[in-house]
């Protein structure tokens, strides 16, 4: 469905992506992990067209994504790290933002309330402003916005960062449930190995701008890659130390 | 060779920035009408909520101008020109420039802070993922609201400024109320007022463009937003004075 070939991106002298090859199949949930600054967010931003890659190709349904960006975005949803809700709009308008362009306000509000309920938020939240919500509620509202228009592709950027383990588990369960229900294809970026197990079908480990290991989540515990095993176990290693795969 | 290279590099960077701002402004101007509700909301923020600050500025400016003209005019027995000079001075110059500067302080800073915060909290990226053009949604309504509202604010400021002069003229300088008002209108020409209103529209464009450009280009967290806000107010203020000079040279 989405294919990334030889993606390269640098900022000044810093090479962030160095020939990334990755693919996402229809209905698959891919989780991308990697240390801080290994280019996970830049990878997503390149796919979305928010950053222009220096080289490489991004294909969607076999054709360059850049040529069909509008169509891709119409069936796309994203949960940002800090939810990125619009401060000036009440929660229901945030959730219904895309819907308000194509349907009457009352209908869009009904759908927004329904989506809020899907992520465990009651109708009383609909008229609050984002600043009045807790971190976990903001994530849920952001999730409701991401799924409001029933997208075919969803990206999750650090969905559990800043949440306590119980709320993080609830968000993980919601994401897995939504991906299973809708059949959407999903890419999740995370550091949280609990999220990897809860959300992912397949795992890709980014290291120094390249995909170091990828495979089914069910096989990651048996992988021979030392760095991946350190990542899974949360073992400390000297800064800048990257053993060969 | 090194100084020449540095000058050349700076020249290229300046040309590039001017080009970017020009393209940004053109996009902001040409995407009008896509979000009328946002335009109405911005007109409320930029126009209606700026009325108190513009009105008070005009009131005190008109009053101080009356005192100054009377005091200076007395030196050559021309104290009677106070009403006409206050009216012409407010309409041509002080109304638009001081009104524009006050709006620059209030509006350019608010726009830069709001858009800058949206930039660093990924809200602008979120707009893109929701198939919404950030320029059409955020920039265009602000630019057009400022262009449409500033002339109205300038017109209101002119009237309040003249009233400020009248208050001082009648209560402190011994003018007859009816004579003061009739002298104010007698020497005021339509172009005096019209040129000030046109200046207001240009100043509105400068204020909103500064706020939007620096806000949308903000980075590096809270410090970046702070820098964007400061730069927006400085650029808008200097821009107003520069555009005022150019327009005054063009008009008169």
Automatic annotation (TrEMBL), chain A:
Please indicate if the UniProt record lists Transport as a keyword. Answer: yes
Keywords annotated in UniProt: ATP-binding, Nucleotide-binding, Transport
Q: Which Pfam families match?
A: ABC_tran
At the top level of its lineage, which domain of life is listed? Bacteria
Q: Which GO molecular function entries does the Swiss-Prot or TrEMBL record give?
A: ATP binding; ATP hydrolysis activity
- In what residue span(s) does the ABC transporter domain sit? 2-233
> Which PANTHER family does the record cross-reference, listed alphabetically?
PROTEIN TRIGALACTOSYLDIACYLGLYCEROL 3, CHLOROPLASTIC
Protein name, please? ATP-binding cassette domain-containing protein
**Species annotation:** Paracoccus litorisediminis
Automatic annotation (TrEMBL), chain B:
| Principal location listed in the UniProt entry | membrane
Q: Which sequence ranges are marked TM in the entry? A: 46-67, 143-168, 197-216, 228-251
* Membrane topology recorded in Swiss-Prot or TrEMBL: Multi-pass membrane protein
Domain of life according to the entry = Bacteria
GO cellular component assignments: ATP-binding cassette (ABC) transporter complex
**What is the recorded function of this protein according to its Swiss-Prot or TrEMBL entry?**
Could be part of an ABC transporter complex.
> Record's family?
Belongs to the MlaE permease family.
Instruction: Give the protein name, as stated in the record.
Output: MlaE family lipid ABC transporter permease subunit
- Which organism does this sequence originate in? Paracoccus litorisediminis
């Amino acid at each position: 469905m989405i294919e990334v070939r030889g993606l390269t991106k640098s900022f000044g002298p810093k090479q962030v992506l160095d020939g990334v090859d990755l693919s996402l199949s229809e209905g698959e949930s891919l989780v991308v992990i990697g240390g801080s600054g290994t280019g996970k967010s830049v990878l997503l931003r390149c796919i979305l067209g928010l950053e222009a890659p220096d080289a490489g190709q991004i294909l969607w349904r076999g054709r360059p994504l850049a040529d069909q960006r509008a169509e891709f975005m119409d069936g796309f949803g994203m949960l940002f790290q800090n939810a990125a809700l619009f401060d000036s709009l009440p929660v229901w308008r945030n959730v219904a933002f895309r819907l308000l362009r194509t349907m009457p306000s009352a209908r869009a509000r009904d759908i927004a309330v329904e989506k809020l309920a899907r992520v465990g938020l009651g109708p009383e939240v609909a008229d609050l402003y984002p600043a009045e919500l807790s971190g976990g509620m903001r994530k849920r509202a952001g999730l409701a916005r991401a799924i409001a228009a029933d997208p075919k592709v969803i990206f999750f950027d650090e969905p559990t960062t800043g949440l306590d383990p119980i709320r993080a588990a609830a968000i993980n369960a919601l994401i897995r449930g939504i991906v299973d229900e809708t059949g959407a294809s999903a890419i999740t970026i995370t550091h949280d190995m609990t999220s990897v197990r809860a959300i992912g079908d397949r795992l890709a480990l980014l290291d120094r701008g390249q995909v170091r290991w990828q495979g089914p989540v069910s096989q990651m515990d048996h992988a021979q890659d030392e760095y991946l095993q350190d990542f899974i176990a949360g073992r400390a290693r000297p800064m800048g130390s990257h053993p060969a795969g | 060779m090194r100084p020449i290279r540095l000058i050349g590099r700076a020249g290229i960077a300046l040309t590039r920035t001017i080009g970017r701002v020009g393209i940004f402004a053109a996009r902001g101007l040409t995407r009008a009408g896509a979000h009328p509700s946002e335009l109405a909301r911005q007109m409320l923020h930029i126009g209606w909520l700026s009325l108190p600050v513009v009105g008070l500025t005009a009131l005190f400016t008109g009053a101080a101008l009356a005192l100054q003209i009377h005091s200076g005019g007395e030196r050559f027995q021309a104290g009677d020109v106070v009403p006409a000079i206050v009216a012409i001075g407010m309409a041509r110059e002080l109304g638009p420039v001081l009104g524009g500067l006050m709006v620059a302080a209030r509006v350019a800073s608010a726009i830069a802070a709001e858009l800058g915060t949206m930039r660093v909290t990924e809200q602008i990226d979120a707009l893109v993922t929701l198939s919404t053009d950030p320029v059409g949604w955020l920039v265009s309504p602000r630019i057009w609201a400022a262009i449409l509202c500033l002339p109205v604010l300038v017109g209101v400021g002119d009237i309040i400024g003249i009233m400020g002069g009248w208050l001082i003229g009648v209560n402190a300088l011994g003018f007859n109320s009816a004579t003061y008002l009739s002298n104010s209108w007698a020497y005021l020409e339509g172009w005096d007022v019209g040129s000030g209103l046109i200046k207001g529209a240009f100043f509105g464009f400068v204020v909103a463009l500064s706020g939007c450009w620096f806000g949308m280009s903000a980075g590096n967290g809270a410090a970046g937003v702070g820098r964007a806000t400061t730069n927006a107010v400085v650029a808008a203020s200097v821009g107003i004075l520069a555009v005022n000079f150019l327009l005054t040279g063009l008009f008169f």
